Amino acid sequence: MRTICVVITARPSYSRIKTVMDAIIKHKELKLQLIVMGSALLDKYGSVVDFIEKDGFKINNKIHTIVEGQELTSMPKSTALGLLEITTVFENLRPDIVVTIADRYETIATAIAASYMNIPLAHIQGGEVTGSIDEKVRHAVTKLSNFHFASTKLAGKRIRKMGENPSDIYVTGCPSMDLTMEVVINHKLDFDPIVKYGGVGSEIDLTGDYIVVLQHPVTTEYDKAGKHVLETLQAVAKLNLPTIWLWPNIDAGSDDTSGEIRSFREEINPQNIYFMKNMSSVDFLKLLKNSSCIVGNSSVAIRECSFMGVPAINIGTRQQSRERGKNVINVNYSSIEIEEAILIQINNKKCKKDNIYGTGDAGEKIADILSRVDLKIEKRLTY
Amino acid sequence: MRTICVVITARPSYSRIKTVMDAIIKHKELKLQLIVMGSALLDKYGSVVDFIEKDGFKINNKIHTIVEGQELTSMPKSTALGLLEITTVFENLRPDIVVTIADRYETIATAIAASYMNIPLAHIQGGEVTGSIDEKVRHAVTKLSNFHFASTKLAGKRIRKMGENPSDIYVTGCPSMDLTMEVVINHKLDFDPIVKYGGVGSEIDLTGDYIVVLQHPVTTEYDKAGKHVLETLQAVAKLNLPTIWLWPNIDAGSDDTSGEIRSFREEINPQNIYFMKNMSSVDFLKLLKNSSCIVGNSSVAIRECSFMGVPAINIGTRQQSRERGKNVINVNYSSIEIEEAILIQINNKKCKKDNIYGTGDAGEKIADILSRVDLKIEKRLTY
Amino acid sequence: MRTICVVITARPSYSRIKTVMDAIIKHKELKLQLIVMGSALLDKYGSVVDFIEKDGFKINNKIHTIVEGQELTSMPKSTALGLLEITTVFENLRPDIVVTIADRYETIATAIAASYMNIPLAHIQGGEVTGSIDEKVRHAVTKLSNFHFASTKLAGKRIRKMGENPSDIYVTGCPSMDLTMEVVINHKLDFDPIVKYGGVGSEIDLTGDYIVVLQHPVTTEYDKAGKHVLETLQAVAKLNLPTIWLWPNIDAGSDDTSGEIRSFREEINPQNIYFMKNMSSVDFLKLLKNSSCIVGNSSVAIRECSFMGVPAINIGTRQQSRERGKNVINVNYSSIEIEEAILIQINNKKCKKDNIYGTGDAGEKIADILSRVDLKIEKRLTY
Amino acid sequence: MRTICVVITARPSYSRIKTVMDAIIKHKELKLQLIVMGSALLDKYGSVVDFIEKDGFKINNKIHTIVEGQELTSMPKSTALGLLEITTVFENLRPDIVVTIADRYETIATAIAASYMNIPLAHIQGGEVTGSIDEKVRHAVTKLSNFHFASTKLAGKRIRKMGENPSDIYVTGCPSMDLTMEVVINHKLDFDPIVKYGGVGSEIDLTGDYIVVLQHPVTTEYDKAGKHVLETLQAVAKLNLPTIWLWPNIDAGSDDTSGEIRSFREEINPQNIYFMKNMSSVDFLKLLKNSSCIVGNSSVAIRECSFMGVPAINIGTRQQSRERGKNVINVNYSSIEIEEAILIQINNKKCKKDNIYGTGDAGEKIADILSRVDLKIEKRLTY
Questions:
Q1: pTM exceeds 0.80, yes or no
Q2: Which of A147, B150, D198, D333 is the most exposed place for a label (fewest CB within 10 A)?
Q3: Is D144 close to C141, i.e. CB distance below 8 A?
Q4: pLDDT tens across A154-177, in order?
Q5: Candidates B76, B140, B381; nearest CB to A143
Q6: CATH topology of domain C182-348
Q7: What class does CATH assign to D2-174+358-372?
């Protein structure tokens, strides 16, 4: 029996790993260990712990690591706390392989602890290209990892070019697409998000056209976070379409983003926007699948929405360079550009689907590979 | 005026950065900030603080970060402490550029703090290939860095292949060679190491042939550290040549290495070996320059000794894949192989010099570049 | 010259130490060092840094220490971060005496760092009795301290009974009274708080009768924080008098308190309450001096308001057992009791002043003592 | 079922709590949780983990917390690390009561974490008076604790005088006496310490008269630690009696103490002293019971040895003010005084036993009380 330790540090990571966790539990030679830490534990940004436990997973350890403050000191200090404590947890759990997900700043703590402790490290979603600090974190984690599960062929190719051994790179598709596949098959909006999850703002009609907004601050532009979100608020308020707006995740700048949203509500009191904290991954995908378009800078617009064929407006630099399908229109931080793009996408109705990010079976593929890879820790640049 | 913040985390880092610090101080558009932390502060492994202050540098902050224990938990926890506190120091110092050196495990703390805080990061000695955890750390730091000062052409080429922007890569040679150049010019052993630095063991004659030993534990083989150093001890004791033996640096396994040395002394009481903690970089280079050969797994054998033309016996995997000149013989952890190689090198006398690691002017080149690079923090994979 | 290092960890501590800092700067044998950390740096709870710098004090070090989360884990983890980093700061500053203030949970970090590093520790406001975790912290800090500056005679007597040496106990009065004295002398409300500091809520008339509310969560009852503040909200909304409401400080439970206030505003939209984050100490005292009464559980109601003769309604257990003057009515967490007490106090107009907490010259007394005490660190229970 | 969480932070704490742990396990309404951290995990000072596991106890969590360095920074930083991580462990274990032992510097981390997290805290060995930083720590822990298990009547009286509620103070005797009682009954030296535990130095004859030395550095005099132990070394070497010398525990100054011992051995090579790291509590007590006298500044000389009637020479200030029986002679740091006192005690043979520290049934008494106390967390000074 191999023990596979999955570390979840933020809300979106859960939907990117859930089907892998399912497959690990089902696999008869694997045993799951689960650590939840960082912003994944904070209710303010939507604790994902309830969803995880409701889905039947047992959490081995919860670790609070987020150091308060908008300033850029918060990210490295929170990473430091995570690194300090996850080391003790790894020492007690002694997993055979650690799995880390994507590119949020705290994930480097998982990668350092595992690699320094001679525990083989598997990385999901390496080899992609985006903007912001994520870009640096993602490739640094690749250089600390032993096994790479790439979401796209191009991502796999980039990992190889960075000097990783081809035999350690697996193009499995992204596990988020597995969840998305289920929604594509059964996509009825069979719940009322407002009733089920609550929030603030005016109640809106979701039976007709509606849009979904999700805009995060960009860490390398954190001092403009308030200004950036204001452009989106103005465009959306002007269009006056039924809108579900999700609060941003925790990052340097998120207080400014949230603060700007709060001020805007106080002053303008927009009549057709409902603000929510979060919902389960599957419910969120259903909400998106039935929407007219998604607006903001979340990767879900580019990954899951391309798979489902949901039109997207991608704002600013956060997803710059990320591989994308034909469902996306890119715009600047400009209320005019955003407004125009929304109008185009709404008339566009459902666009063509794309499976560059996978075919819906990544979870099983990854679990299977984890059960049979050689447990090595040494590696060397291939050139 | 640009402020350049140099972070020294371990004894050997100082000699790799000293001439850069000299050149920063001399440069009229640059101002030096200096942080000393980690094992560089611990006397047990040879505090480098005395040398730094004697050389006239002012230390802005000292930070104790090493968490005790031989186990592999010590490395990630010490890194975490470093990351936590260096963040506060950077917030107070607010440097324009941070400079990190080489590939020791704690250097990733410097790299994370700087990159997460949007401070441009310069890395010295990237792009090389070796064994052990250093390999992972080095390339991860490259992916977090904005400017790369490579020691060799091949290293520069590798950094480019990893996807870094060619315009951010500078092949300056290694600053250690600057110091070494001074020793090559004036290499007389004009001091008695035993009198000047003290140590334990039998006093030895350094006027004739003598050898120098420096062997560190390998983090990925830490449980064999004692066994590995025993082979070297046996070979050296059997040859019975005058020997200066330097204690290893602090790493998982260093207690085993030191413990084995201590036991060997108790039991065998070798008559021609003198054990020392450390000495100034220049004195150490003079000691090497006048020796018959260097034995162990230190990079100094491959870098500085190739530049000076000192024969070297390189043991085991620690320097595996590092570019090397013709002064090196590689051997396994085997007392017989080590003994034979020493005999060959002693008869070999001075071998051909090599300048793959630089031409002795890296410090000035680096300071000059730091004074004029664009202070950017965004970057993206080139492919 | 002696260096006296003052550590401020929270908003209210500044007004309790300001005149001591003034007196240290004026004293020709003393030199001030100033560290600001913890919630004193967080804007959300009202950063006091701006006031400190505006008053002309130089801050030597700022340290972010607050770990996010409502749970009770936040307090010990934030204390741990403070202890870790203040140690490094003390090592760099090397003060002759450290001064710590009152009894907030993070102050124990200052006390531990100083006492473990053999730096004499002076404690202001020991020997008082209240409820909550503060009670434990206060007396534990007394047991770690070398010099005690008590606010009242009774407090000084209690410190002696706890086994401290009588010659180390000084009843100086509380330095907050020094500031208060200035306000008593010149108490005109010569600014418009709403214009000067901003906030949210309906603008109110401060020219006639108005009340001030300040209610903190109680750490040992943190799960009821929302419920407790709701009672006060209901009473105050019902009375419909012009009200300035200050947000609570950061403590386990403060998110619930703030959340309840926010919900109440959304639902009820009370027309005569204005919510503010914070203001300078002197402005706050002027606001209080001109108010009809203060409502809540802040110590300012019992200390400064008794000195100024401002009627107070003290709610719940937080100030239980604290020595008080005749200006205070105690009530339970009950909207009816709160409402009745406010009505009584408003008709009560200005009540009799009291100087149990000092005579307005504590700052100078304390600085003078600090300049001449023996710098000892050893101590022993007197019985 | 109540869960009682015992925290062991150092070698000597185990023997002070072992019989309590036994009694908790045997008690049908109690469940034991066990955390081992700090120097208790470090082999250099004698890991107690092996003894704990050999005795059949299950350790729930191990936490490495010791930050390297002789300087006084090591104590507060190690305490901070302990506080940070034990908080997470308490959050996961959720004990009903936490038990902390005695007065070592790290124990305050346990006390803070428990009290800040609203977990009732029980303290063993409060109310005693000694020198050094322990004095401050002990009483500060008393002020953070809810239940007090005093070793002597006088200690219990002092706790009451400090303002603790009489109904929370229990004079149970010290649990170390329970272990000692077993040795008193069966005290044959039925093992050869040198064979069983190993060490360095000349093998010695334990069949006749022999002495045992255990001398720790004093944290408030840490810069003289080397000088202090040298006096003892000189006295013991001159007497030339068979001597077992135990290495000191980890404290500021311990490197100097160990260093001085090592130098003395190199230079003088004393022929009748054997140096050992540690042994099981019971074996150590047997060694003492059969010795002619104990020399140094360990509390075992005053507590266990008075109970067993073993003569003791207590050196310097470390145990100053500790209640003692008639078995003790106090001397200064002076080789002459030490030598004379040893000669007196050796001729003194077995002295009168004393049971001021208990009657050998403390473990059961404590467990019984823990099973039935009210689980309260609030408390207030009694005056």
A1: yes
A2: D198
A3: no
A4: 999 999 999 999 999 999 999 999
A5: B140
A6: Rossmann fold (3.40.50)
A7: alpha beta
